[in-house]
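Comment on the following before class.
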Amino acid sequence: MTSRSLPALVVVCGIDGAGKTTQTRLLVESLADRGLDARAAQTTGPNTRVTGALKRTIAPRFLDREDDLARAGSTATGPASAGGWIFLVRGLWGSWTTVLANATADVLVLDRYLYDDLVRVAWRYGYEESRLVALSRLVPAPALIVRLVAPTAVAWERESDGRTTLAEHEAKRAAYDRVFAALDTDGAILTVDTGEHGVEETRDRLRRAFDTRLSTVAADSRRAQR
């Protein structure tokens, strides 16, 4: 590990079914082949035995209730709108704890980040995107943000849990567009349509983006080993 206090951070974001988990794994494997301490992780909130049990028992019921309220138009107004803060707190906590837990890595590649929680709150709870993105200043700034997109019908078919309708999936994608348009990332976003580009081609584009944005990480690591 070099004198950096945190690893170089790459975050892979995008609509469900766009290929985040696959591309996270492939990028980490590629970086590890170069001799880097590259790690993959998911930022899904506090990862303790207690919170794990809560996720398994309470989360499905909470999401079912959220679906019912959202479809009734009740999450954007009244007391139910406060539910958005649950996801904001989860996103902030999860982003920090996951990065700190991997502080000794050269590169940390995250499958989802705070940005995905901002999208959920904008989509399900109607929070204003320009205000939500201000929270991105409270978490470590990624060196590279990968946003994976796919045609709605394609991503919806790939989606694993089947919780959303096709129309809801389209609305969530629109929320991703608005949130990412509002982010100030200094050109650090790479957007790839995985409906147009295959798995290998997408992987290669991520590698090239990494080389462009983060080439100094490899050099720092080699110097530290001498």
Remarks:
- The longest helix spans residues 199-225.
